[in-house]
C-alpha cells in the first residue's frame, strides 16, 4: 500500500485551499470558500473520482488537542485480491486484513482506479485522517476524494490527553430513535457518480444511494412496539413517498434486520441510516418500482436468538405493523431480509416459514437446510424469491454452503459474490440489487377496476430517467400513487381539481388517462416532471380533462431541436429570436382545449411571445390563434387543441 499522505495547508480565516488527502503528494486544486460545519461534496476535475469531500469540524473548546476523521470504508482494495473462503489464511479477510495483503492490495482514496473497491468492516481496515486546524479559528478540516455512493464516517476527539471515539458528526448527525433517545452509530457522506472518472463497470454507479432533492422522499418513523418480552422495543418504519393509509390495495412490506453493531440498542436504526435503505427505495419508486413499506427491529441484545426472535416477529412485530400500517397480510406481499446475524435470522425464516414470507435477502451469512426444511421450501419454490450474497473478502462465508445445498436440490435462488467485505458498502449494493431485481414488481394490478388501466403507463423515450438518463417506464402503481397523492392534496386544500405528478411521462395512453380520471372523481392537472434536452432544463405542465380526450398524451419539450435548427438554417444570421419547441407525439386534435405551461432558461420577451404550429414535412409554420402570457415565475402559458410540433418564439417569424 502506498504510504505517502500529503496534507497541504494554505489557509486563512477566509479561505480553505487544498487541504487534501491524496497519494504521492497529488493535492486537489479545488479552492472553496470556507465551509459550514459538516461535510460538503464538490465536483473536482483534479480528483481521481471527479469529486472531493470536505469535512469540517468546528470546536471552540481550547482544550481540544486533536480531531481525527475515520471510516472503515474509505480504503480501496484491488479486485485482484483473492477471495476468502474461511479456510485458514486462504484469501483476503477485510475484517482482519493482514499487513501483507494490505501492502499488496490496499490503496488510499487518492489512488482510485475503476478496478478498486471500497470496503473494510474493522479496525484493521479503517482509514484515519487527522484534521488540520485553521490558525486563529475554531475550524478543523480535511478533504478526501471519494467514489460514488454512501459512506459512513466518525470522529475521535482528544481533549486534555483523553480520546473519545465513535462520535458522529455534530453537524451531520446520525439517525435518532426519538421514542427511545438511542442514536445510530455513524454519519453519512453522499457522493455522486462521474462515469468518465469512475468507469462504467457493474456497481460503479451508486446513485441509488443518494437522497432525492425533488421532494419525492418517503418518511422514516422511529417508534417502539410491545414485544414478546413484555418491554417496548425500538422499531423504525420506512413509508414510501405518497403512502396512503387508506389505499384500497395494501402495501408490500419488507421486514429487515441488522447484525451485531457493538451497541445493545439502536440496532433498528442502522438500515435506515448507514444502509441508505430509504434513499434506495425512494429512487427505485421514482423510477417505477411498486412502493413498499420497510420495518426494522433490534435483536442484538437478545444475541440474535432464534428462539426469541421467531415468536416476537410472528406474534408481536407483524400483528403490530399490520394493525398500524396499511401493509399486506399475505405471504406474497411480505418479505424478510438481513445482513450478518440478521441474515442468519432471515435464512431461518426462509427455511421454516416460506408460508409466511415470499421474498428473502440473505447477505453475509447463511444456514444449510435440513431435509425437512428442503421439503418445505420446495412446496413454495415457484412463488419465492431468494437472494444470497457475500463479499469476496467477507469473513462470514456461510452463504456458500447454503447456496450449494439449494443448488444441489434444485431450489430456485440467486447467488452473488462481488468484491467487498463485511461492511455497509457491500450491504448497500446488495439491498439495491435485491430491491431492483428481485423484490415485488408491478403486477399489472389496477385499482379500483382491474380492467381500467393497462399494466404500464406506455412511456416513450422521454420517460422517467435514472441518474445516467436511462429511460424508465412509469408503472401502474406509480401512476396510482401520484393520483391518490394529488387527490388527497386537493381535498385538503378544498380544491375541485387535482394536480398529479408523474415522473417524466412519455406516451400516456387514452385508456390510462381515462382510468386515472375514474380513480380520482375530479378533473386532473397532469404535471410532467422536469425534462432535459441538449443540456437544458425545461418544466412542462399540461392541464386536460381525460374524459374529453380523443388521443393519447405524448409530450416532449425542448429548448432547441431539429425544428429550431431548421429555422435557424432557413433564416441564417437574420434569425435572432429565442425559440422553444413543444412536441406532441400525435398530429391532429385532442378533442378539447388543453392549457400548456412551459418554463425554460430561454429569456422570452413577455410582450413578443407568439405560438406557431409547425409542419415538419414542408418546413412551414402558421401563427396560432391563442393568447400567450408569461407569469411571474417565467412560465409561458397558452392553450391549444392540436398536437404535433408547436414553436414558441419571442418575435414574429413571418417578419423575418
From TrEMBL:
Residues 1-23 form the signal peptide. One of its GO terms (molecular function) is hydrolase activity. Transmembrane segments: none annotated. Pfam families: Esterase. Keywords: Hydrolase, Signal. This is Alpha/beta hydrolase.
